[in-house]
Amino acid sequence: MSIIRLDRVRKSFGADPVLRDVSLHVARGDIFGIAGRSGAGKSTLLRTINLLERPDSGAVVVAGRDLTRLSKRDLRAARQNIGMTFQHDNLLQNLTVFDNVAFPLRLHGMLNPPRLRRRVQACLELVGLAARADEYPARLSGSQKQRAAIARAIASQPEVLLCDEPTSALDAEATRALLATLRTVSADLGVTIVIVSHELPALAALCNRVAVIEHGVVAETFAPTDTTAPRITPLGRELAFHATEAGALFHPGVLHA
Ligand SMILES: Nc1ncnc2c1ncn2[C@@H]1O[C@H](COP(=O)(O)OP(=O)(O)OP(=O)(O)O)[C@@H](O)[C@H]1O
Predict the structure, then answer these.
(1) Which residues line ligand 1 (CB under 6 A)?
(2) Which fold, 2-10+28-60+70-207+214-255?
(3) Which of 56, 59, 114, 202 shows a CA-CA span of 20 to 30 A to 124?
């Protein structure tokens, strides 16, 4: 069953159409990748899923509710079910890692202090940062900052996690650590992850489905592990190549079980 459904979404900035007619389904539990050339509209599409970008027309249905039809108040509540991380980690520099993760819980008055502490610690353990809880973001590596941002994004136990270019500032080793964290988050919490990246090897290694955005539409959607299916776009073919490479590194049966 789809947890996210975009139906004929259109979005222009001024006279420039970015999303011309985007329809896609993301199944519950998917790690779903969005690929596309620079400027193709990947981030715009991702930001449409929680209505940070409001489409000009079309439906954005998350967990059964069309977000475009909600009142401001209901939209605020619906967004608590959709965590998000950004290319730049957006951590609050004057707060410790613990307080960054606790921030959305405190903001929404969720949980009493002992439960909040347990929740934050559990999130930090999941992303491998339990030992860094009292550090300030400036002392973390790029991968650790992204992992702290993931911990913050999952603290309110959303069903959906949106990740915008989480590995773009990371070297190869840090990228592998971050992909491992996202796999753990997916496996342990069952959260549905949608990830935008221009790094095809990362998408090929992580995602069980990928959509390629081209000319404002979804040009194709496929499972990277299905390396035998014909690909329509050059980018799809590149992804298939990287999926074969990734298969040599990570056994797909383990990765996508
Ligand atoms: N708020 C905005 N106002 C005006 N134009 C915008 C806005 N956001 C995005 N755009 C434009 O929309 C187009 C798509 O941008 P978007 O960031 O979604 O693409 P992308 O595929 O994520 O690109 P990249 O891989 O380079 O990050 C670009 O031409 C961009 O300049």
Answers:
(1) 13, 18, 36, 38-44, 198
(2) Rossmann fold (3.40.50)
(3) 202
